[in-house]
Design a protein that fits this description.
There is one protein chain. The chain is mainly beta and about 475 residues long. The protein folds into two domains: about 30-340, Glycosyl hydrolase domain, family 43 (Tachylectin-2, Chain A, 5 Propeller), CATH 2.115.10.20; about 345-475, Galactose-binding domain-like (Jelly Rolls, Sandwich), CATH 2.60.120.260. The chain contains two helices and 36 strands. It has helices at about 1-25, 100-105; strands spanning about 30, 50-55, 60-65, 80-85, 95-100, 115-125, 130-140, 145-155, 160-165, 175-180, 185-190, 200-205, 210-220, 225-230, 235-240, 250-255, 265, 275-285, 290-295, 305-310, 315, 320, 330, 335-340, 345, 350-355, 360-365, 375-380, 385-390, 395-405, 410-415, 420, 425, 435-445, 450-460, 465-475. Strands 25, 27, 28, 30, 34 and 36 form a six-stranded antiparallel β-sheet that branches. Strand 12 and strand 13 (about 210-220) form a beta hairpin. The protein is globular and about 70 Å long. The chain starts with a helix and ends with a strand.
C-alpha cells in the first residue's frame, strides 16, 4: 500500500513538473521592441524591412519589407530588394533571406533599369498552393508608369519568381495592400493616381490571384491602405498624402468589401504617432484575437534610418482607436496583449545641466516631445558637451534610452555615464524634424544616487550645418 501511494505521488510530481514545463514553454508574453527606434534581428543585425507586411504559417509569422539601407547612408528611394524575417513571438526576428531583388525584375530586359518600388504584400492561394506577392513598382525615370509587380513562390520564405508588371482596373498603381477574405476571395486595395486625381480603389483578384478581375469600390483621396476584418466588419485604415511626413490616419468601415463604406473617422493622433500605416497583424490565440497596427516612421534624410511603430488596436463597438505605448506585452499563444512595465523617464528640460565653456543650452517647447518640451544645446566644435544630473532611485541593471529631436544643424553625440561611454554614437541630423529614440544598451548601477550623463559632440554629419543637440528625455527601464 505504501509503495502504491509512493508511486502515485511520484506520478503526480512528474505530471505537475511536465505541466509546469509546458506552462513555461507556452507562457510567451514578452515585451515588444521599442517603438521609434532601430530594431535588431536574432543575429544582432539591423532589421531592414520597411513597408512591413505579415503572413502567419503554422505558428510562425513571416515579415516582408523593402530594403532601405544603402552604402552612402543618404536619401534615395530605389528598389534593392524584399527581405523576409520569421518569428514565433513577434519580438525575436530571424532573417530568412532576400526573397526578391532588382536583378530579378531586370532579368530578361535588354536595358536594365533602376526601379522605385515598395509595400510588398504576400497571401497564400489555396487552389494553386502558391504564395503570391504584390508590390508597387515603376521605373525611376518614368513616374507615370505606375503598375503592380507580381511574384510567386511555392514556399513562404521564397525565393520569389518575378511574374511581370501589370495595370489594375484604375490605371496608375500607388500604395497598396492585399486582403484575403474568409471564403478565399482576395482583393488588392491601392492608391490610384490616374488623371491627376487620387482615389483609393478596391479590385477583386482572379481565382489564382495572378490578375485583377474587376473593381468593387472606390474611395476618395487616401493612400497607404490596410484592411482587416473583425466580427463581420471590414476596417480600412489609410493615411493622407503628405510625402514622407506623417499625417492624421483615417479609417472606414463596411459589411462588404464592395461597400458601401462609411464616412472617414480619425485614427490615432494628428500624426498617427509619427507613422504611416503599413499593415495590421492579426494575432489569433487560444483566449482572444488581438490586432496590431504597424506603421513606418520615415526618416526622409536617409530612409534606411526609418523605424517602426506598432500599437494594439482597441475597439469601442465598431469604432477603433490606438493609444501611445513605447512598447507593450504580446502573447502569441493566447492572443492577449498588456501594458509593459514602464520606464523611469527623466525630462531633459527639468534636469540640472552643465555645458562646456563657451556653449549654451536652453529649454524650448514642442508639443511633439514627451512632456511638451526639450533641451537645446548649442555647441561650437567637436568635444563640446552638455551634462545632465540624473538621480537614480535604486541600484540595478537598466536599459538606457534617449529621446531626441532631429534637425539640419544637429551633431553626432556619444553618451557617457560617470565617465564611461554608453552605447553607440547617435546622429541627430535630419532634413526635417523627427523624434528618434536611441537604445543605448544596458548599464548596471551598484548604488543609487546622482549620476552624470554627458553628451559629447564627436562627429558631424556631412550634410549638417552645426553642432546642436536637441534632447527630449533620458529613460531607464528595469
Amino acid at each position: 500500500m505504501r509503495r502504491a501511494v509512493a508511486v502515485c505521488l511520484v506520478c503526480l510530481f512528474i505530471c505537475a513538473t511536465c505541466f509546469y514545463s509546458m506552462t513555461e514553454v507556452f507562457a510567451a508574453s514578452v515585451p515588444t521592441q521599442f517603438n521609434g527606434e532601430t530594431w535588431y534581428d536574432t543575429a544582432g543585425n539591423v532589421i531592414d524591412c520597411h513597408n512591413q507586411s505579415f503572413i502567419k504559417v503554422g505558428n510562425t509569422y513571416y515579415m516582408f519589407g523593402v530594403i532601405r539601407r544603402n552604402e552612402t547612408q543618404t536619401y534615395d528611394n530605389f528598389f534593392r530588394g524584399v527581405n523576409c524575417y520569421s518569428s514565433t513571438d513577434l519580438v525575436n526576428w530571424t532573417f530568412e533571406r532576400t526573397v526578391l531583388t532588382a536583378d530579378d525584375i531586370n532579368a530578361g530586359l535588354a536595358n536594365p533599369r533602376v526601379w522605385v518600388a515598395g509595400r510588398p504584400k504576400v497571401i497564400y492561394n489555396d487552389l494553386t498552393q502558391q504564395y503570391v506577392m504584390y508590390f508597387k513598382c515603376r521605373p525611376k525615370d518614368k513616374g507615370s508608369d505606375r503598375k503592380f509587380a507580381l511574384s510567386t513562390s511555392s514556399t513562404v520564405d521564397g525565393p520569389y519568381t518575378f511574374q511581370g508588371r501589370h495595370l489594375p482596373t484604375g490605371g496608375g498603381f500607388g500604395d497598396s495592400t492585399l486582403f484575403k477574405d474568409d471564403d478565399g476571395t482576395a482583393y488588392v486595395i491601392y492608391s490610384n493616381l490616374q488623371g491627376g486625381t487620387r482615389t483609393t480603389r478596391i479590385d477583386q483578384l482572379s481565382n489564382d490571384y495572378l490578375s485583377v478581375s474587376h473593381n468593387v469600390a472606390v474611395i476618395n483621396k487616401r493612400e497607404a491602405p490596410n484592411v482587416f476584418k473583425k466580427d463581420g466588419i471590414y476596417y480600412l485604415i489609410t493615411s493622407g498624402a503628405s510625402g514622407w511626413s506623417p499625417n492624421q490616419a483615417k479609417y472606414y468601415t463596411a459589411t462588404s468589401m464592395a461597400g458601401p463604406w462609411s464616412a472617414a473617422k480619425n485614427f490615432g493622433n494628428a500624426t498617427t504617432y509619427h507613422s504611416q500605416s503599413s499593415d495590421v497583424i492579426v494575432v489569433q490565440g487560444t483566449s482572444k484575437t488581438s490586432y496590431i497596427f504597424c506603421g513606418d516612421r520615415w526618416d526622409s534624410s536617409y530612409l534606411g534610418n526609418s523605424t517602426h511603430v506598432w500599437l494594439p488596436i482597441k475597439f469601442n463597438g465598431s469604432n477603433i482607436y490606438i493609444d501611445w505605448y513605447e512598447r507593450f506585452n504580446i502573447d502569441t499563444q493566447t492572443g492577449e496583449w498588456s501594458q509593459a512595465e514602464p520606464g523611469i523617464k527623466y525630462e531633459c528640460e527639468s534636469l540640472a545641466t552643465n555645458v562646456s565653456a563657451g556653449d549654451s543650452e536652453s529649454d524650448l517647447t514642442d508639443s511633439n516631445c514627451s512632456n511638451g518640451a526639450f533641451n537645446k544645446f548649442i555647441g561650437n566644435a567637436l568635444n563640446d558637451y552638455v551634462e545632465f544630473t540624473v538621480n537614480v532611485a535604486a541600484a540595478g541593471t537598466y536599459t538606457v534610452r534617449v529621446g531626441g529631436k532631429s534637425g539640419r544643424a544637429r551633431g553626432v553625440y556619444q553618451m557617457s555615464i560617470d565617465g564611461t561611454d554608453q552605447g553607440e554614437r547617435v546622429d541627430l541630423h535630419g532634413n526635417g524634424n523627427t523624434y528618434p529614440v536611441a537604445n543605448l544598451g544596458q548599464v548596471t548601477f551598484a548604488s543609487p544616487g546622482s549620476k552624470t550623463f554627458r553628451f559629447t559632440i564627436v562627429d558631424q554629419n556631412p550634410s549638417s550645418t552645426g553642432y546642436t543637440l536637441s534632447l527630449d528625455y533620458i529613460a531607464l527601464y528595469p
